[in-house]
Automatic annotation (TrEMBL):
<dbReference type="Pfam" id="PF02653">
    <property type="entry name" value="BPD_transp_2"/>
</dbReference>
<keyword id="KW-0472">Membrane</keyword>
<feature type="transmembrane region" description="Helical">
    <location>
        <begin position="218"/>
        <end position="235"/>
    </location>
</feature>
<feature type="transmembrane region" description="Helical">
    <location>
        <begin position="62"/>
        <end position="84"/>
    </location>
</feature>
<protein>
    <submittedName>
        <fullName>ABC transporter permease</fullName>
    </submittedName>
</protein>
<dbReference type="InterPro" id="IPR001851">
    <property type="entry name" value="ABC_transp_permease"/>
</dbReference>
<feature type="transmembrane region" description="Helical">
    <location>
        <begin position="91"/>
        <end position="113"/>
    </location>
</feature>
<dbReference type="GO" id="GO:0022857">
    <property type="term" value="F:transmembrane transporter activity"/>
</dbReference>
<feature type="transmembrane region" description="Helical">
    <location>
        <begin position="242"/>
        <end position="263"/>
    </location>
</feature>
<feature type="transmembrane region" description="Helical">
    <location>
        <begin position="269"/>
        <end position="287"/>
    </location>
</feature>
<keyword id="KW-0812">Transmembrane</keyword>
<feature type="transmembrane region" description="Helical">
    <location>
        <begin position="6"/>
        <end position="23"/>
    </location>
</feature>
<feature type="transmembrane region" description="Helical">
    <location>
        <begin position="179"/>
        <end position="206"/>
    </location>
</feature>
<keyword id="KW-1133">Transmembrane helix</keyword>
<feature type="transmembrane region" description="Helical">
    <location>
        <begin position="35"/>
        <end position="56"/>
    </location>
</feature>
<dbReference type="GO" id="GO:0005886">
    <property type="term" value="C:plasma membrane"/>
</dbReference>
<keyword id="KW-1003">Cell membrane</keyword>
Length: 307
């Protein structure tokens, strides 16, 4: 395998992994606070369409990113209002949020179907970003580096800072945290909002960089992979990073195999590989449920009411 092909493969893996890493990192923080939000796919779609619409109308991809963050945030606050404010079932509300995201993104994106825009493009100067070999380190856009940096920051924040420890305490025992004066609902709302912002960015990465155009259901179920990845990583940011790049490698193999005309498997099977890998991971996890259940926050998915 030539150096150019290796560099191309590595860069494609990094870019394919970025939206999954962003979405799963936001969901990890929400789940650490005790909130199970299954609406990641819906928030990603809202982020994708608002980001694309803003970029198409203003001509600025970075304004598109800001719009995507706002779209993801507002969508997550709908979930927070229903589950934390009104104590609605988190699983049902998350599924409804995904359905809402699919429909709303199709409606908002209807005028933009088939329209293309400029990609985000590399963050660093062309001398580094365009180098035949060094571009494997310096040839990426802002969100690739942001996702890596946020993973390190979240890991440090959860483990070593007081707010991070408070968030973990809320996820482990909400009644105890409330008894000693911690604002459980406020902490959980902030965690859900953070997850919404990152899900919006993850969706925008599809419409502004990976495929800089709008089409219905552009995220193609990657939000569900992000949800599975949080469990696969045992709610640990470092494992989340490794898992995201593992799934990115699987998706990249699918693309390269199709481009190379890999004849042993039909293209439909190759397209299924990322989702088959998700099912395999969840199956392996279910074989050892004890270890996973002890890693999960004790109050995950449970409603809390400050009586």
């Amino acid at each position: 395998m030539s150096t150019a092909l290796l560099v191309s493969f590595a860069m494609t893996v990094a870019m394919a992994s970025t939206p999954i890493l962003l979405a799963s990192l936001g969901e990890l923080v929400a789940e650490k606070a005790g909130v199970l939000n299954l609406g990641v796919e819906g928030m990603m779609l809202i982020g994708a369409v608002t980001g694309f619409a803003a970029a198409a109308l203003t001509g600025s991809a970075y304004l598109g990113l800001l719009a995507a963050m706002l779209g993801g945030l507002l969508t997550s606050l709908i979930f927070a209002a229903l589950t934390l404010g009104l104590s609605a079932n988190q699983v049902a509300t998350g599924l409804a949020l995904t359905i809402f995201g699919v429909g709303a993104s199709a409606l908002i994106g209807a005028p933009f179907v088939g329209r293309t825009i400029e990609r985000l493009g590399p963050l660093l100067p062309q001398a580094l970003a365009g180098h035949p070999v060094l571009r494997v380190l310096f040839g990426y856009d802002l969100l690739v580096y942001l996702a890596l940096g946020l993973t390190a920051v979240v890991a440090w924040w959860l483990r070593y800072t007081r707010p991070g420890l408070v968030l973990r305490a809320v996820g482990e025992s909400d009644t105890s945290a409330h008894a000693i004066g911690y604002p459980v609902l406020a902490v959980r709302t902030g965690a859900v909002a953070f997850g919404g912002v990152l899900a919006g960015l993850a969706g925008a990465y599809f419409s502004l960089e990976l495929t800089p155009m709008w089409a219905d259901r552009l995220t193609a179920g990657r939000g569900w992979i992000a949800l599975a990845l949080v469990v696969f990583a045992s709610w640990r940011p470092a494992r989340l990073l490794a898992g995201a790049y593992l799934f990115g490698a699987v998706m990249t193999f699918e693309l390269h195999a199709k481009a190379a005309g890999f004849a042993l498997l039909p293209p439909e099977i190759l397209a299924m590989l990322p989702y088959l890998a998700t099912i395999l991971v969840l199956t392996l996890i279910s074989v050892r449920p004890g270890r996973v259940s002890t890693a999960a926050p004790a109050c995950l998915g449970k409603a809390f009411s400050p009586a």
